[in-house]
Amino acid sequence: MKQRAPLTLAAVTTALAAVTGLAALTAPAADGKAADGRTAAAARMPVERSLLVCPGPSSSDIAETTYTSFTPGAPAGEGKGSARLLGATKDAKPVLEPKEPGKPVGAAASGADAPALTGSADGVLAPGWTAQLTTKVSVGRTRGVLGVGCTAPGTDFWFPAVSTAKGREDYVHLTNPDEAAAIVDIKIFGPDGPAKPDAGTSESIRVDGKSTKTVLLSTLVPGAQLADATAHVTTRAGRVGASVQVGEEGVGADWLPAAADPAGSLVLPGIPADAASVRLVVFVPGEEDADLKVRLAAPGGSITPAGNEQLHAKAGMTTVVDLKDLTRGEPGSLLLSPSDPKKSAPAVAAVRVVRGSGAKQELGFIPATGPVGTRATVADNRPEENTTLLALTAPGADAKVKVTASPGTGGGEAASQEVTVKAGSTQTLSLAPAGGKGSYALTVETLSGGPVHAARTLSLPHEGITMFTVQGLSDDHSTVSVPKAAQDLSVLTR
Questions:
Q1: Cα–Cα distance measured from residue 366 to residue 361, given in angstroms and rounded to the nearest whole number
Q2: Quick one: signal sequence residues (predicted)?
Q3: CA 35 to CA 33: how far, in whole Å?
Q4: Which of 156, 348, 425, 454 fits 473 for a cystine, CB–CB 3.0-4.6 Å?
């Protein structure tokens, strides 16, 4: 009789990881060896399931919103998968249902009733799945182009550059994709430290399952007129998607996405060449102050802004620096690094950017963004001339990347281009599919060299106003490391 050998725990873990696409349940020993002393190798496997959460687009009755979803990767026929984004309420109908990798799909909605979305993708549609919502409001207090990428739900979010001042309305959008309720805390830090909240309003905020809630930040700290502040959103139970929608009197509206996790060095990519005002907001969440060098990575290399070479940020307090029109006609990215490499305090940061002047100003936000890593994608780019500009920044070493424009939602042929980014510089390009119709996706893949950071600016001018929005691109984490079994699982015979 033939009998199978018993599976080791490592083997079971590997099998489960390959099926679920999740990281292994156990890891090799600290020396990298399995229990039998042999070195345990690791393989990269595609994730099998991805989750996304999108906030509710707008409170304006004249808002026009475009939803776009895209998965790069395997050509049609190399496996099966499914994906759907649907309203963040129980029994909601699907809004987007991609059918295959490499082809974006879109949908449109009008008015203030356009829903927040939640959804999942599995199989070949899971690795790198991305979605974007872009809203255009032509007039009113919230006029502008508001763009935001849908994100994975989480438990910890930092939002430098929020405000509770008169003339600003900053709403935190909290969306719960799960059945159980989530419990959320929001803390606000101004230039003097934590702002005193109104009793009970900023803690234990309940977000019911399969629902969304908006919180006006100024109601949490009544009487505190904070022109620049930092919001910290955490969950006590459950998980949420979190984004901040900003409306500013006379300057327009846009989304402020969560900044990259606290780090000693930060990159804020994609500041437009014609930025009339750039305001940097930094927060240090630890106990040690941060002393940072400030550089602008321009097309010709990095330069130091005159008068703003160094930045001292006190721990627990929001620090603001007015960099004015530092780009001076050339696109660039801000690079923040420790003044003393031996003394680094993790920080979070974002910039508020204004284009135009007078009654035709328009604002946008650029938070610190992680590197594109192996691959990163942004959806909803437009083929019209001068609407889409991709900025690529290499903060430390030369790098080469491949940029691919997918077909449009209405057709076209994909196009690609390799770009070399010199150390300390920002390179920009416009790339669209041949004969593309509708919105398309841009995917950036690192080919060689150091890390690259990227951001896409989408400009949709309206009646002389340079309406725009900037979205950063971060590693899509489309693969996970799966340890290989150290034991041969061959069939034994008795």
A1: 17
A2: 1-29
A3: 7
A4: 454
